[in-house]
Design goal:
Strand content: 15-25%
Strand order of the largest sheet: 2-16-8-1-7-5-6
Number of helices: 15
Number of strands: 16
CATH superfamily of the largest domain: Alkaline Phosphatase, subunit A
CATH architecture of the largest domain: 3-Layer(aba) Sandwich
Helix content: 25-40%
Number of domains: 2
Distance between the termini: 17 Å
Length: about 375
């Protein structure tokens, strides 16, 4: 019998949400297989981690270093939401070589564009095909509780009707950005995802089921404009928040980490000195240090990699500092994620990162 694999990334799936939610089917998977708390890849943002899981590699190899990329040579930036930016083979491409049929289901259309290379079926809930709308239900708003449920139901239907060998589902984190783990809406969101997942498990008894997250989520109360802070000391720089994407309702493009590009490379030492004096800046890495520490691709990151304290985000705000009340991610404070599987293909301690799910699949 051909091997069947189902992988789901729950966007913003911080372990605290799972600890408080009623998710009996996930707990059933963990009890019969494994459930560990591991780490996502840093920066803890969606594009980086979906690419990492899909290729079973770190950004140094797959090339996705953020949701947005700035080219200092031209002064232009672009959203990294095309498969053209991926520099490694995907799970789908590897499976295709083995004669396996593959299916991708995402809530966000940007992830469909990024991950669809090699997929036989590629569906985005944000822009669903008419035939699935007719069978699963009306199109849902991207900023809604329903869209993730729709996407998972669409995956369930296609698995039943077309029986693909490899299925990859990636949700959106609007609910996690909006509600903390103890909120009734956050718990209802996960409970319904768990119910649909339970149906998939029961309807596909021979399928390997894996569930993880792309990053966690934290409450943030202090926004800092690093370029404004540096300009006050005479240092001219461009700051790129790694979280930056088109879904600004989620996070206002404010995240806990970012890249600084200096107009004058000779100002590196002065910039690091100035950054160390800013309350809310926790860690600063030179490019080569960031490459070594986090496995980033050197040609696609800034001169400096800056991470904030737990309550801090960086980005484009009026003035130097601003009190805010949002939930966001990006830094190592949002690195903790669950890794759950129905089949144990390696000792539990070897599932350290979300990408280890695909690494241990051992597809040739």
């Amino acid at each position: 019998m051909p091997r069947k694999v189902f992988i789901m990334l729950i966007d913003g799936g911080d372990p605290q949400y799972f600890a408080l939610a009623d998710v009996p089917n996930l707990r059933r998977l963990g009890a019969s297989g494994f459930w560990v708390n591991g780490s996502c890849v840093i920066p803890s943002v969606t594009n980086v981690n979906n690419a990492s899981v899909m290729t079973a590699t770190f950004p140094r190899e797959h090339g996705i270093t953020g949701n947005f990329w700035y080219d200092p040579a031209s002064g232009d930036g672009t959203y990294m939401e095309s498969a053209d930016y991926l520099t490694r083979q995907t799970l789908f491409e590897r499976a295709k070589r083995l004669g396996m049929r593959t299916a991708l289901f995402t809530s966000k259309i940007k992830l469909k564009k990024l991950l669809e290379r090699g997929a036989d079926i590629a569906i985005a809930g944000e822009d669903p095909p008419a035939n699935l709308v007719a069978k699963v239900g009306p199109k849902c708003e991207i900023y809604s509780i329903d869209i993730n449920w729709w996407v998972l139901e669409a995956a369930r239907l296609v698995m039943r009707e077309q029986n693909p060998d490899i299925v990859y589902v990636s949700t959106t984190d609007y609910i996690m950005h909006k509600y903390p783990p103890e909120h009734e809406i956050a718990q209802r969101h996960l409970h319904e995802l768990d119910r649909i997942l339970g149906c998939i498990v029961d309807e596909n008894p021979d399928c390997e089921i894996y569930v993880t997250a792309d990053h966690g989520m934290s409450a943030k109360h202090h926004a800092i404009n690093l370029t404004a802070k540096l300009a006050k000391t005479g240092i001219n720089a461009v700051f790129v928040p790694v979280i930056k994407d088109k879904y600004v309702v989620h996070h206002d493009n404010l995240g806990g980490v970012g890249y600084l590009y200096l107009k004058d490379p000779a100002a590196l030492g002065d910039a690091m000195g100035a950054l160390k004096e800013i309350s809310g800046v926790e860690h600063i890495y030179r490019r080569e240090e960031a490459v070594e520490q986090f496995g980033l691709m050197p040609g696609r990151i800034g001169d400096l990699f800056v991470l904030g304290t737990p309550e801090v985000v960086f980005g484009d705000i009026d003035g130097e500092d601003q009190h805010i009340d949002i939930r966001s991610h990006g830094s190592h404070h949002e690195a903790a994620i669950p890794i759950i599987g129905s089949v144990v293909r390696a000792p539990a301690h070897e599932y350290r990162y979300n990408l280890d799910i695909v690494r241990h699949l051992q597809l040739a």
